[in-house]
Amino acid sequence: MSVAAAESAAAQRAPAAGPAQVIDLRRVNAVQEAIQAGRLTQVRRTTLGGNDAIAQAALEAGARFFGGYPITPSTEVLEYSARYIMGHGGSYLQMEDEIAGIAAAIGASLGGVKAFTGTSGPGFSLKQENLGYACILEIPLVVVNVMRGGPSTGGPTDVGQSDVMQARWGTHGDHPIVAIAPATAQECWEETVRAFNIAEKYRTPVVLLPDAKVGQMKEPLVLPPLDLVPIVNRPYPAGAPEDYEAFGQTASGVPPLAPFGEGYRTHFTGLYHNRKGLPTKDMRLIDQLQKRIHAKLDTKEARADILKTENFMADDAEVLVVAYGITGRAAKDAVLEARAQGVKAGLLRPITLWPSDAGAFLPHLARAKKVIVAELNLGQYRLEVERLAYQAAQAAGKAPCEVVGLHRVDTRLIAPRDIYQEIVR
Fold this sequence. Notes:
alpha/beta; 17 helices; disordered N terminus
């Protein structure tokens, strides 16, 4: 491939600037915000379950390959993809198990196709080794994990938020990860599009973490026209093939990625590798590789794209609730009830769970007298909130605020009344 041809191909793959200016997915309630600001005047209205909204968003974001295996409560993602992906010119492949499902998606992504896989609970455990492979090879990939209870088979049809720490630390080694927890069917659509954009722009796996209730709940959606869906495509090499380095140094820290079969030679191995992808024992190159894949997600631009937290009446909150997913919805009602009783309560709802949004949390943790972390597990995200509370206290030169957990693992939801009672306790 000539340099001119490569530059032409790169231009064809580049995302248009317009849609990203109409809908800013970095904002909470991005579609509604665009409507209210007058940037979006035409919409599509529909009703979907959260899992169907995820699959539809994936296709509308440009995903053209799904590889997976059916498992409750994520199977609707697979079923919707199987029904519609070929109509978009894509391919669906049901594999023999979860390990093969993510492996197939990785292969499709390396072939130049936006790819995703879906699972829940035990299936997410099985995907972890290949997820680590995707991390070290910087493969754009979206992994949908509709959370249920556990460990082991647990409650296949029951709700849980038990995979929060697994999403961050489930695979071995030092690796960055992005994990996003939508709370509504609307957010399932918006956050799936954003997940693909992050995966493509930064060459990284992204884990989508709806819980079972959000995944299977049907709700009205307001969507933009297809030509206004903000789409980002992966960086593509513009130089001569002989100069191509799939793991080279760039200003953004994100190397371009050429698909197999287009004249750019590289090597993909799970071993430490040099800039051409070949195994290496060079300590300097290993150090550069490890630090670069973390640093590329920690630039100012990357943090703006990746971190996302909803602030609900938290600016003057003395009692701060932290909750995500379906539990975040209950927390809003509890905060409103507490405010009606004169209690200065507020909610921080992390939409991006990992990396944690320290900039959004620290000012509120420094001011709050009490923090309640409500989640459908025995305190997984509470550990991160406690860490941030200690960091905020150190910066302020005072003792950390009280952090208490409100946890449930009996297959039932945490109700607004449960959170309200803890707020006023």
